[in-house]
Amino acid sequence: MSSVTKRYDFVFFFDVKDGNPNGDPDAGNLPRVDAETGMGLVTDVCLKRKVRNYVLLTNGGKRPYDIFIKEKAVLNKLIDEAHDDEKVAEKEKGEKTEAARQWMCKNYYDVRTFGAVMSTGRNAGQVRGPIQLTFARSVEPVVALEHSITRMAVATEAEAEKQSGDNRTMGRKYTIPYGLYRAHGFVSAHLAEQTGFSQDDLDLFWKAMQEMFEHDHSAARGLMSTRKLVVFEHKTALGNKPAHELFARVTYKRTTEGPARDFSDYEILLDGQPYSETFKTVPVQ
If you ran DSSP here, which 8-state letter would residue 3 be given? Predict the structure, then answer.
């Protein structure tokens, strides 16, 4: 597998219609919102979760594309497996942590991509991943709506008796009518070399960013879609321009008046010109 030799910076647009893109458990699962500006937020952790799920789904959990941080995993057991590997076990005490770290990077896609803290049991060190994402922020303020919903059933006999057989359960559901979100990301060739993150791994990541919402539908999330992925490819590992200058080249404009309710209410621009492709790599001069 070829190695990643160049730095990349990218801009990622996605949207949600009549759904909750990232509920806040500390706020009754309301959509995350910047309290000062009203802009919607989606955490980097949420986006990484969707990438992990996509890689797990498309590769069946087979190594080297298994996932370390997955649902119901007991992390220390997975770290123990690294230490119990024959090649790791034969190392001297002072070398075992590094050998276990390398084993984890080799076998788990998300470790060599996003990094991980693996010192919670038998020490496998810490990994700083070559791909990092920012929080996604909506391009305009969003409105969180609260809906009453009814389930025509109850959970227990006691509830049924209390309602004299009416058997209804009331609940709440929170949605955003529409929101277009923008996130930024970074790919470090130097950190890729340290974790063994390859060009094939990077290609899989770009594919995941384009397709992950297609395999993540739920009643709570409504309709979520990838809209644009603009990747700036530098000439070298160090890069030849600051990321913020590149990000400033990607803008948007409204094409309609009033509240936005569809992606067609916006136009994405690259260097001031309409950007039609969903995915595009832009060489940095």
Answer: B
- In tens, the pLDDT along 48-86 reads 999 999 999 999 999 999 999 998 899 999 999 999 998
Concatenate the DSSP letters of all residues of 147-209 into one string: EEEEES--SSHHHHHHTTT---EEEEEEEEEEEEEEEEEEE-HHHHHHHT-BHHHHHHHHHHH
Between 88 and 58, the higher pLDDT residue: 58
Average pLDDT over residues 269-283: 95
Cα separation of 80 and 255, whole Å?
A: 55
The pLDDT > 70 percentage for the chain reads: 100
The backbone torsions φ and ψ at residue 136, rounded to the nearest 5 degrees and listed phi first, read -90, 140
Residue in 126, 22, 109 with CA at minimum distance from that of residue 69? 109
- Predicted TM-score (pTM) of the model is 0.93
| Residue 59: φ, ψ to 5° | -115, 0
Q: Where are the alpha helices (DSSP H) in 21-122?
A: 44-59, 75-84, 86-89, 93-107, 109-114
Q: Is the dihedral of CA 122, 128, 131, 137 positive or negative?
A: positive
Distance CA 191, CA 62 (A): 24
**Identity of the residue numbered 127:** V
